[in-house]
Amino acid sequence: MTRKNNRNGEASVSEYMTARMATMDSKDSVRDIARRIVERNISSVAITDSRDRIVGILTERDIVKIVANGVPADGITTGSLMSRPVESIEKGASIGEA
């Protein structure tokens, strides 16, 4: 792998980030999100609104908490359970900044 350093010579976020994150709609069920996570062998899904803007994130850990608390995976949408707001950083930023 070619090291992509930022202007301070530090490793940049782009070396470690996923360029194309999996997304699903905030109206999708928790079960649908869990299926996507298993099918793609990923640990989280970005949640989008009706205008395809990322508005939250749902992780494997979030789903485990939901199930452990007895929340039905079919009857509830991700929009009400996702973590928000989503924080982001420019891909050229250093790992230290992240």
Write a compact overview of the structure shown.
The protein is α+β, with helices and mostly antiparallel strands. The chain is built from 2 helices and 3 strands.
Could you please describe the fold and organization of this structure?
This protein has helices at residues 30-40, 60-68, and strands at residues 23-25, 44-48, 54-59. Strands 1-2-3 form a 3-stranded mixed β-sheet. It contains 2 helices and 3 strands, in the order E-H-E-E-H. Helix 1 (30-40) links the parallel strand 1 (23-25) and strand 2.
> Order of strands side by side in the largest beta sheet?
1-2-3
- From the helix content, strand content and strand pairing, which structural class follows? alpha+beta
Q: What's the number of helices?
A: 2
- Work out the strand percent: 5-15%
Q: Radius of gyration in whole Å, from Cα?
A: 16 Å
Q: Which consecutive residue ranges, at least 5 long each, have pLDDT under 50? A: none
Summed over residues and divided by their number, the pLDDT gives a mean of: 85
Helix content: 10-25%
Q: State the end-to-end distance.
A: 20 Å
Count of strand segments: 3
- Tell me the overall shape: elongated
Please provide the ordered H/E string of secondary-structure elements: EHEEH
Q: How would you characterize the largest beta sheet?
A: 3 strands, mixed
Topology (elements, then pairings):
Blueprint: E1 23-25, H1 30-40, E2 44-48, E3 54-59, H2 60-68
Parallel strand pairs: 1-2
Antiparallel strand pairs: 2-3
